[in-house]
Design a protein that fits this description.
The structure is a homodimer of 401-residue chains.
Chain A (H helix, E strand, L loop, with lengths): L5 E5 L3 E2 L5 E2 L2 E8 L9 E5 L31 E2 L4 E2 L4 E5 L31 H15 L4 E7 L1 H12 L4 E7 L7 H15 L17 H15 L2 H7 L5 H8 L3 H6 L12 H16 L2 H13 L10 H4 L6 E7 L7 H13 L4 E6 L13 H15 L13
Parallel strand pairs in A: 5-8, 5-9, 6-7, 9-10, 10-11, 11-12
Antiparallel strand pairs in A: 1-4, 2-3, 4-8
Helix pairs in contact in A: 1-2, 3-4, 3-9, 4-8
Subunit structure (chains A, B): Homodimer.
Pathway (chains A, B): Amino-acid biosynthesis; L-methionine biosynthesis via de novo pathway; O-succinyl-L-homoserine from L-homoserine: step 1/1
Pfam family, one (chains A, B): Abhydrolase_1
């Protein structure tokens, strides 16, 4: 499935919860499948911290051939014959404002100054993102979504859709998410932000003017994040206490060398395989991600709390929702633990909403929502086939609907 | 109880597991209570990452009055009438080499160069520390310890004592500890180290020569550490999602102001109370702690793994131990989870050692080992009273034994 990003410009201002205003803005998005004549088979996918509009399919080179490793971040979930089947549903991937992947964000030029926004980009919230997404749906002529779906921060957006636009959502699929962050979640975000902000190359957020970027801080931020995405179990089984040179020797088939290997006793160099892995993740991230975007998106996470206006009563907060729900959590996810998903389920049941809940026994921690787990995908597939797709034509085998 | 640190110089070299050598070294220590005539009532306390020889008692000002807030780090555990009762036991607090609290460490002068050791200080291990501690006991004329005791990294030293000097330890008290670090533990240490090493003020570890120190990195390291010392539950109950200005207003009794307070929407300033707390911890730590010491001590944690020479077989590794054991863990400690303590207990039982095990239901996470928990202290008190103290004279009420 070859896909091409599209771009839509909005010339009426977006007034943000923070008091800031984007006088105009652009959203980058992709679509997969066909919008049907009734315009009622649209599924919106919301992204989390580190992702974009590029949910599924592949990009093409100049000759129209698929580019290697250009698959969308949820390509195992969305596509022809996938759990969210693009032969049946018209799926929209959208990049949020504040991001660094194409939609209006802090690396773009602030029209008021002619300079990049940098740290002056206004604080954006989950609610703002949902409002911007709703404007794109208006532009696409979609009055009502068959479903809105997301994992982690994306799940918060899906939940917020049902509260901000209850009439416009038939189903919400909220995966590995939470009704708000715990103190520990905020704490991890804060350490990551401090690593970025205290990097001398951050320059108060105006590093672009200085021709630099706070790579050191971004590396640390990503390393911290990565630890919280994985479970203790999966880290032990993937890396354990394996030494880095040992792992290299084993890969080279040199078992004799491997046996001779001992601790090198170093405080600054890599000793354990897990260190090598984390440094690599940090290095990659620091090259492609924008530091101000990292601050903005972690703050959107921190601020999300629909129960806040209701004295912390989540059931009262969710009373507005009209959608049906699928809520999914993963047993070893300690970032957004199953108990947090159960809070959502309980509050929805208090409001007599139709809720399906799947707690998937998976070893991969928070990352599980992105992985190809048979039981997880079966639960999402069944929900889309029988619930979201009820009343929609079934796909003809092999053909694009 | 007024105490004064003492210092002992060792002129014969300490050959380290890393291959490094300390040609001479000094250990700073404190003692509490009286060594009895049989010299068999000594209890050695081993410290963890952030502590020192100052275990109990208080320091005095020039007039001999106790200095406020000068209590030792385990003063709720050690002292007259405390669970480790200094009327009965002669307790030794000792500062390890590599530390920044007095014993020979990276801020001291390398005799070979006349410059501070800095990053050239050799890598030290738990085993090296235990060997140095044994030399101090030789100097004090103590052949055999009534008990060796420690929490966290201190517990690793207590365990290592029973393997390195099985004849010299009657009892080992291993609290909130583990037989080695998991991949996740190492990962958190590594992120903290990277934050320090990548601080431009680190200068490859020779920051003293540059008249600076990597405060930014130390702050981040401490913030990360602090999150892992606390449980999710205790963070939620102490801080939750409370806003910083709200907390300030409530402390000032201004509930009306508190009710008006809303999100300020900021990416770089403090919004939540937990952020304020973590920043404060990081700031304090960055002033008093040495960065090279942080690297050394976290590496000592990473490297500790007595089962390593036995193909990972902990039971085989602990076969040398002759001591009796009290092992204690805390239910919400996710840094050194109870399951890790149970590994130690199982391996000891495999070797038919006498083991008492207490798994304390406490909300405070890893930090619990430092706190005044009634059930925890009762368990330690009973063990010292009835097991360690068996055969020793009981203290006379109120008097120094």
């Amino acid at each position: 499935m070859i896909v091409t990003p599209q771009r839509h410009r909005f010339d009426s201002p977006l007034r943000l919860r923070s008091g800031g205003v984007l006088p105009s803005f652009e959203l980058v998005y992709e679509t997969y499948g066909q919008l049907n004549a009734a315009r009622d088979n649209a599924v919106l996918i919301c992204h989390a911290l580190n992702a974009s509009h590029h949910v599924a399919g592949q990009y093409a080179d100049e000759r129209g051939q698929p580019l290697p490793k250009s698959e969308g971040w949820w390509h195992n979930m969305v596509g022809p014959g996938k759990p969210v089947d693009t032969r049946r549903f018209f799926v929209i991937g959208i990049n949020n404002v504040g991001s660094c992947f194409g939609s209006t964000g802090p690396t773009h030029v602030n029209p008021a100054t002619g300079q990049p926004w940098g740290a002056d980009f206004p604080v954006v919230t989950v609610e703002d993102w949902v409002e911007a997404q709703a404007r794109l749906l208006d532009a696409l002529g979609i009055e009502r979504l068959a479903a809105v779906m997301g994992g982690s921060l994306g799940g918060m957006q899906a939940l917020s859709w049902t509260l901000q636009y209850p009439q416009r959502v038939r189903h919400a699929i909220v995966i590995a998410s939470a009704p708000n962050l715990t103190a520990e979640n905020i704490a991890f975000n804060e350490v990551a932000r401090r690593a970025i902000v205290s990097d001398p190359d951050f320059h108060g957020g105006h590093y672009l003017r200085h021709g630099t970027k706070p790579r050191r801080g971004l590396r640390i931020a990503r390393m911290i994040g990565h630890i919280t995405y994985l479970s203790d179990d999966v880290m032990n089984s993937k890396f354990g206490r394996r030494l880095r040179p040992l792992a290299q020797a084993l890969r080279a088939g040199d078992t004799e060398a491997a046996e001779r290997l001992a601790y090198r006793y170093t405080t600054q160099d890599i000793e354990f395989e897990i260190e090598s892995y984390l440094r690599h993740q940090g290095d990659k991230f620091s090259e492609y991600f924008d530091a101000n975007t990292y601050l903005l998106i972690t703050r959107a996470l921190d601020y999300f709390d629909p129960a806040r206006e209701f004295d912390g009563d989540l059931s009262a907060a969710l009373a507005r929702a009209q959608a049906d729900f699928l809520v999914v959590s993963f047993s070893t996810d300690w970032r957004f633990a199953p108990a947090r998903s159960r809070e959502i389920v309980k509050a929805l049941l208090d409001n007599r909403r139709a809720v399906s809940y799947a707690e998937i026994d998976a070893p991969h921690g928070h990352d599980a929502f992105l992985l190809d787990d048979a039981r997880y995908h079966a639960a999402v597939r069944a929900y889309f086939e029988h619930r979201v797709g009820a009343g929609l034509p079934t796909p003809t085998a092999g053909g694009a609907a």
